[in-house]
Amino acid sequence: MVSYLIYIGVAIGLFAFAATFALFAVYYERKLSAFIQDRIGPSETGKYGSLQTLADILKLIQKEIINPTATDKWLYALAPAIIFIAVYMGFAALPWAPGLVPSKINIGLYYIFAIISIETLGILMAGWGSNNKYSILGAMRSAAQIISYEIPAGFALIAVVVICGSLDLQEIAMQQGILFKEHTQFLGIWDVTGMGGFMSWNIFRAPHLIIAFIIYFIASLAESNRAPFDIPEAESELVAGFHTEYTGMRFGLIFLAEYSMMFLVSMVGVVLFLGAWNTPFPNIGSIHLANWTTGIGWGIFWIFVKTLLLVTVQIWIRWTLPRLRVDQLMDLCWKVLTPLAFICMVISAVWRVWVMN
Amino acid sequence: MSAANILFYIMSFIALASAGYVAVSKNLVRSVFIFFVTLFALAGLYVLALADFVAVTQIVVYVGGILVLILFAFMLSGRETLNVLQHPDRSVWKITNLPALLIVALLFIVLINVILKTDADHLGWISDSIKTKNYITNSGDMTGNIGVNLMTRYLLPFEIISILLMMALVGAAHLSRKESVE
């Protein structure tokens, strides 16, 4: 009985985390965008405007949920829940620290990849259920974009999986630090076994993985519908894309899903490329920096800081780059990223057989 | 009844009920979305049968790929076409339907026969493999086992399927190519 209570507790904890993160990420994004555009941003509510998003969410909860008459009631009402649950279920398999993972499954990465693809279905549901031309155009753009960019993202991930030889995220995380007992090399030339630190992270285990990481990062921007890939909700053309008709907490759920997705894809990137919960400091001679900064508390700290850094880069890109046109978007995906990702995967296989042995 | 049993019955019920709705519903788009529930419940049944890799593949292929493609087909076709499809002549007992009714009835008899004849608890090949120790337990290494088997024992079928898919890809690319203007 106690174990079931623990399961439920973990699930509620993850939901609370996703909600709190979204709350503060919105504030963070507004402040950062204000900085980039040389404004002040929210400043009235609370110290430095820090209570602004809390006030916003209170307003959203109180709002009336409007049901437009021409919608397909069921699809319209369920779509936001499906979009959010798809992202939220992905959190179950992410490792937080040595030995600390909500659900230790040996196909963790594959599971996350599958669960995220359900979001597309939720978006199509929202677009069709709204019975509005802007919504349906936005939904179709979004689905086309997510399906296309899943391919380079998937192959970039496979490039890492081939090097690591595992789909278990905890195993992949463990291989990138001092806890890994086997032979580790920095870029295939310098033996860093037992040194740990940033030199044993996956991104530096082979030179082509740096390219794979960039491919994954670009594709992850597209998968979370973030600028410069936000044509599904391009304000100037489609009002608000697939969530034009939504109000109140239903809109809130879609918003929550977008910010949770940002965190999720960043965290997957960190786990696979940037050393997961491993410390960036190496052991140098008798100064065992890596040993001192490894542990459950440190693990949570490092993975959180690294993920927040990636989220920061996502926000920075959104407020710096203009939106891509549809054809440019597809050209980038199919003519640049997909072939590069394929090449990365082939190099990975060769690397695994000839360099790592 | 153990928790696994209860889960099995819940998920089978969801799968059957949603499949029934898919078949009966007059709203085509809605039945596509309910089909998603069927597939998800099936994935849950696979997990119960310790086939977690198959379950996740089911979600990737069917939900992420095929369902979305079906929906695309819907959204690209006009509302009039859909309306015609949604209000067909629904009377079943007609002379033109006789072949279909016959096939359905025969298939139903065959299925009932199979269910009655199969002694699911004492299947010959299962007891044989238990006797010869030719089975794996839930050691958490199911995926690795699938990979090794695909690359050794079942390499030829695997390669043939990949060539088939490659041909489909090339064909699709050729069909969708713009004709060069001369």
Trace the largest sheet of chain A across and list its strands.
1-2
User: For the terminal residues of chain B, how far apart are their CA atoms?
Assistant: 73 Å
Total E-strand runs of chain B: 0
Q: What is the N-to-C order of secondary-structure elements of chain B (H for helix, E for strand)? A: HHHHHHHH
**Radius of gyration of chain A over alpha carbons?**
21 Å
Structural class of chain B: mainly alpha
Helix content of chain B: over 70%
Q: What would the CATH topology of the domain at 1-90 in chain B be? A: Four Helix Bundle (Hemerythrin (Met), subunit A)
Major interchain interface with per-chain residue totals: A-B, 26 and 24 residues
Tally of discrete structural domains of chain A: 2
Keywords for this structure?
heterodimer, A: 357 residues, mainly alpha, 2 domains, 2 strands, 64% helix, B: 182 residues, Four Helix Bundle (Hemerythrin (Met), subunit A), 8 helices, extended, quinone binding (chain B), membrane (chain B), quinone (chain B)
Give a brief outline of the structure:
The complex is a heterodimer of chains A (357) and B (182). Chain A is mainly alpha-helical and 357 residues long. Chain A has twelve helices and two strands, in the order ααααααββαααααα.
Description:
The complex is a heterodimer of chains A (357) and B (182). Chain A has 357 residues and is an all-alpha fold. Chain A has 2 domains: 1-62; 71-355, no CATH class. Helices cover 64% and strands 1% of the residues of chain A. In chain A, strands 1-2 form a two-stranded antiparallel sheet. The longest helix of chain A is centred in the first third of the chain and has 35 residues, at 2-36. The radius of gyration of chain A is 21 Å and the shape is globular. The model of chain A has no long low-confidence stretch (mean pLDDT 83). Chain B has 182 residues and is an all-alpha fold. Chain B has a domain at 1-90: Four Helix Bundle (Hemerythrin (Met), subunit A). Chain B contains 8 helices and no strands. Chain B has helices at 3-24, 28-48, 52-76, 79-86, 98-117, 124-131, 142-151, 155-175. Chain B: It is a multi-pass membrane protein. Chain B: GO terms for molecular function: NADH dehydrogenase (ubiquinone) activity; quinone binding. Chain B: One of its GO terms (cellular component) is plasma membrane.
